[in-house]
Request: fold
Amino acid sequence: MSENEIKIPGSHIIINGGDPVNDCPTDWKTIPALEEKLNEGKDVYDEPQWKFDCGFKLDFDGALLRISSRFYPPKTSYGPTWDGSVSTYFLDEEIEVKAFDCPTLPELVEQVEAYVKEKIQEYKDKLTK
Reply:
């Protein structure tokens, strides 16, 4: 029995998954270099990434769909309205763009949030069929 195991009558508790075996990391100092190697060639913003969590658990997380937007405020150099667009990406590929041009910030927020909520529901509906 190792130091991270507790045996009591009727139970056997393993804290933190037991002792490391095979190629399990044993030192947090080695983690950044290992994560860098595992994620080599992957775009940090557009692809799932390998990341170690507590107890050296390994995650492969990232968004398949991403929303990105930019809106220019009403200024003499930009124009009298809030204008810009919302882009939807699948991994690193832009799949849809929606332009917005609103006279006030509250209108922009309302329209953009309604559009994104609609897109979320649309994608959920497609994925659950």
User: Anything to note?
Assistant: The longest strand covers residues 93-102. Residues 65-127 form one domain.
